[in-house]
Design brief:
This protein has a single domain, classed as Nucleotidyltransferases  domain 2 (Four Helix Bundle (Hemerythrin (Met), subunit A)), CATH 1.20.120.330. Strands 1-2 form a two-stranded antiparallel sheet. It is built from 7 helices and 2 strands; from the N terminus they run H-E-H-H-E-H-H-H-H. By secondary structure, it is mainly α. It comes from Serpentinimonas raichei. This is DNA-binding protein.
C-alpha cells in the first residue's frame, strides 16, 4: 500500500518535519543504539533500546516524506515499519525481520516474555543497519534536514 493510500485511510497524517526535530530524533536514535550495547543492562532493556532506534529511524523516514503515524492509533508501530519500503527503500526481506522484532517487543512488553541474547544481537544489527541507511538517505535525499544551523 502506498503512502498516499495510507493517508487516505487515515493510517498516516501529513507532517512537516523541521531540521531541528529530525536532528533531535537522529541523535536519540544514536543514543539508543549506544545504550543497546551496554552490557550492564538487562537483555530486555538492551533489546528495547535497539528497537527504539529502529522506530526512530523509521519515523525519520516518514517525516522526511511529509508524514507521520497517529501515535494514538493501534498498530502505529507496524504501520511505521511497513512504510520503510517506501520511505528508506528497505527491502521486503528486511521488513519481515523488523516485523518479527516488533512482535518480540510486544511479547516482552505485554506478556513479560524474556528476550534471548540472540534476539538482542539481531535487533542491534538491524538497528545499526537502519541507522546507517537513514543517515545516508538524509545526506543524499534530504540534506537540508541535517544541515547544521549557523
Amino acid at each position: 500500500m502506498s503512502l498516499s493510500n495510507l493517508l487516505a485511510i487515515q493510517r498516516l497524517q501529513r507532517f512537516e518535519a523541521s531540521p531541528q526535530g529530525v536532528q533531535r530524533l537522529l541523535a536519540a536514535a544514536e543514543r539508543n543504539l549506544a545504550d543497546a550495547g551496554l552490557p550492564a543492562l538487562s537483555p530486555e532493556n538492551r533489546f528495547d533500546a535497539a528497537y527504539k532506534c529502529i522506530m526512530q529511524c523509521a519515523t525519520i523516514g516518514l517525516w522526511a516524506h511529509g508524514y507521520r503515524t497517529p501515535t494514538s492509533q493501534t498498530g502505529h508501530h507496524q504501520t511505521t515499519l511497513q512504510c520503510l519500503i517506501h520511505t528508506l527503500g528497505v527491502p521486503a526481506e528486511v521488513l519481515i525481520v523488523l516485523d518479527a522484532l516488533r512482535k518480540r517487543r510486544n511479547q516482552n512488553d505485554y506478556e513479560g516474555e524474556p528476550v534471548s541474547p540472540a534476539a538482542v544481537a539481531e535487533c542491534r544489527v538491524q538497528a545499526q543497519d537502519l541507522l546507517a541507511r537513514t543517515r545516508g538517505f538524509l545526506q543524499t535525499e534530504f540534506p537540508h534536514l541535517i544541515a547544521l544551523s549557523p
